[in-house]
Design goal:
Layout lengths: L1 E2 L18 E6 L5 E7 L24 E5 L12 H4 L5 E5 L18 H14 L5 E6 L2 H11 L4 E7 L6 H4 L5 H15 L1 H9 L3 H10 L10 H13 L2 H12 L14 E6 L7 H10 L3 E6 L6 H4 L1 H15 L6
Parallel strand pairs: 1-9, 4-5, 4-6, 6-7, 7-8, 8-9
Antiparallel strand pairs: 2-3, 3-5
Helix pairs in contact: 2-3, 5-6, 5-9, 7-8
Length: about 325
């Protein structure tokens, strides 16, 4: 295990790279429309220029780094990595069903981790189906692991940030209280949808932010408040009952049974002060993965990519360099 205590990268993003993202939509197996954005260091005129027709347009040979959010998130955690990594890799970010600009699920029973992983593999085909590194934050970690398990072809590595291998509701804050209270919350939301929606959406986002700081859920000394506001704004707009049901659906999933079969290199990054996903869970996951490196970030919490931008960017960039396909002679 590596423990980092100093920042090691402060190179600003190249301004000339701004505006190169291409936005598109892809349809999942059940017809749900998923939002996708792709950004290349060089606008090479391939899949990004034809976002709606990337499937079947040929394999994209450049390594693509695909960013997978946590639940109830639509990209706030990638604010800095989206720029910092754009000089070293082709980037892709997408929204889960029912999140951000993606549609509500066409089949409302399909909201578990294997479904998200299948959606991710549809995204992979949509953007050219070339070599990829899957990067997950929080719930994105089991999503990335399951997507690899379902379709390991062309996956060159995994980066798992502030997450675990599964059982999310049983391990939240290090205990199972969330798993125990969720059924009651769902019954309440089903019986009083208007009231529950109102309570969920009307809490001022700045109040929620103040509570997060007061509870020590994030590192107030290293996090800019405006970096966390988009999370609360998106959460307030999300369908409350769908969120609860999706959260419950993730609770029973675990990748533990196949971790020993993951044959690609894995970078596991954990926050020493992460209360949402205690770092011992990342340590256990890394120990079970045959080719994993664990990096512990002192002082970092569940939003380490925002708190320790330069350190995380450097770690991921170095990992990408080591896993990128080498050009043939």
């Amino acid at each position: 295990m590596t423990s980092l205590r100093t920042k090691s990268r402060s190179k600003p993003p190249d301004p000339s790279l701004k505006g190169l993202a291409r936005e598109s939509f892809v349809y999942a197996a059940d017809g749900t429309r998923l939002y996708v954005r792709v950004r290349s260091p060089v606008d090479d005129g391939r899949a990004e220029n034809h976002p709606g027709g990337a499937e079947g347009s040929g394999v994209h040979t450049q390594l693509t780094t695909i960013l997978c959010d946590g639940i109830c998130c639509d990209g706030y955690i990638w604010k800095y990595l989206w720029d910092d990594l754009s000089e070293v890799t082709r980037l892709c970010h997408w929204n889960y069903r029912g999140h951000g600009r993606s549609a509500i699920p066409s089949d409302t029973s399909r909201i578990d981790i294997p479904t998200h992983a299948d959606d991710l593999n549809h995204v992979r085909r949509h953007i050219g189906d070339g070599p990829v590194v899957l990067v997950g934050h929080s719930m994105g970690c089991p999503v990335a692991l399951e997507a690899y398990h379902e379709r390991p072809e062309q996956v060159r590595g995994l980066v798992l940030l502030c997450g675990s291998s599964g059982h999310l509701t049983q391990s939240f804050h290090g205990n199972d209280w969330l798993a125990r209270v969720l059924p009651k919350l769902i019954r309440f939301a089903e019986s009083r949808p208007g009231l529950s929606r109102g309570l969920w959406s009307r809490m001022p986002v700045k109040t929620a932010l103040s509570l997060a700081f007061a509870a020590g859920e994030v590192d107030k000394a290293s996090l800019a408040p405006e970096d966390l506001l988009p999370y609360f704004e998106h959460a307030a707009d999300m369908d409350f009952l769908l969120f609860l049901r999706m959260l419950e659906a993730t609770g029973g999933y675990s990748a533990d049974a196949f971790l020993s079969t993951v044959e690609v290199p894995v970078l596991v990054v954990a926050g020493e002060g992460d209360k949402f996903t205690p770092h011992r869970l990342a340590e256990e996951m890394a120990k079970a993965l045959p080719h994993a490196e664990l990096v512990m970030l002192p002082g970092a919490t569940h939003v380490a990519p925002l708190e320790q931008r330069e350190v995380v960017a450097d770690l991921v960039a170095r990992f990408l360099e080591a896993t990128s396909p080498r050009p043939s002679a």
